[in-house]
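User: Can you predict the 3D structure for this chain?
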Amino acid sequence: MEVISKALFWVANSLLIPDIIILLFLFARSLLMTGSFYNQFMTKRKNDKELNDKIKNLDSSSIEALKAVLPEKDNSLFIKYMRDLLATPPSEAYSDFLISNFENEAEKDTSLSKLLAKMGPVLGLIGTLIAMSPALVGLSTGDISGMAYNMQVVFATTVVGLVVSAVGLVTLQFKQRWYAHDVNNLEYVARILTGKQV
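Assistant: Here is the predicted structure, written as structure tokens:
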């Protein structure tokens, strides 16, 4: 039994360094994501101001006006699909195909946020529990400096994991709301183009 316990302890301790490396990688990725999310937020806000009223009051006679206000240099997901929808001849099958593709790409875009939201706390907790064991051993043997070092690792992994998770959760909430709104707009425009009753 003692051999099994020691093997288990050795395996758990050997996971600490990979856990910290992955946690630091996800933290760096979350910082990069914060910058790109801010850029996406500002672009989305500007586009919504210009397009929401046009889409809301859209009819078959104002389709060209909507085409004219689409930003030319913007390659965000919604603008790209709206441009494609307006450029092709009206077809219900193609509109459904485009909207399904848009939903798939939107899901792909939110996958990193989901990963950060779920993996941040998991990796933080793993690091906390692994480092807690040597800290308790240090406490029992009177090695206060060793215990203090391990407690630093305990708190650092927890905090970094929670920060990573917070970034993932906030960006996920915003993106899901944006994409739901965008799908609604695309479906509305598709119905106007195909002449279906809205």
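The helical segments are 2-14, 16-56, 63-69, 77-87, 92-141, 144-194. The chain is about 85% helix and 0% strand.
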